[in-house]
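queue> pop job 88
queue> type: inverse folding (structure -> sequence)
queue> payload:
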């Protein structure tokens, strides 16, 4: 028997959903025979600098940032994890869709998505997704429409987006734990509720 993989999840609402999905993942078919995840939580959607300073990362292998990204402390959490060699998964609720990015400790910084002193985080993220899609000639029309619609306010936090993000995040965590390939930032996972084929 192997020891469980230690996982730290920050974020209250979506963090709880991710924890639930990760705890229920079936590793029995894994060639690595892991015993699953041992989950530690920071049950806050808005982190403070004090929360980040108090965060014990001893033995943590992966971290999930499912906070609201509404202050610098969310990004300080990421940096603290990366400084200790911990891969960070970012899970973002986009209303009727989910965005996930996996950040290597020495890889591209996820904080680059947000332009200091500009848009709401989700609008900045939407613009990043749109520009990425245009660059790779894979436009994402629904995100462009959402950016126009929510340009003066934040994207809504709908339950469906949180559930989509939780399911995808659990799969990404399992793939990391099993040594399978994942996409690393600046690549990302984007899953709308309904996608035109």
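queue> result:
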């Amino acid at each position: 028997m192997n020891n469980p993989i230690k996982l730290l999840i920050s974020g209250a609402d979506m963090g709880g959903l991710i924890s639930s999905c990760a705890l229920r993942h079936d590793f029995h078919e894994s060639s690595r025979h892991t015993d699953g995840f041992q989950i530690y939580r920071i049950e806050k959607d808005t982190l403070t600098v004090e929360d980040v300073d108090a965060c014990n990362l001893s033995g943590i292998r992966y971290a999930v940032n499912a906070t609201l990204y509404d202050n610098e402390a969310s990004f300080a959490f990421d940096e603290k994890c990366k400084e200790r060699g911990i891969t960070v998964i970012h899970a973002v609720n986009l209303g009727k869709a989910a965005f996930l990015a996996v950040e290597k400790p020495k890889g591209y910084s996820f904080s680059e998505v947000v332009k200091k002193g500009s848009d709401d985080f989700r609008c900045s993220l939407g613009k990043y997704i749109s520009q990425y899609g245009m660059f790779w000639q894979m436009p994402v029309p629904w995100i462009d429409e959402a950016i126009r619609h929510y340009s003066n306010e934040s994207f809504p936090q709908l339950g469906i987006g949180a559930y989509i993000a939780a399911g995808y995040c659990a799969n990404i965590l399992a793939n990391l734990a099993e040594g399978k390939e994942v996409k690393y930032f600046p690549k990302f996972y984007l899953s709308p509720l309904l996608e035109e084929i």
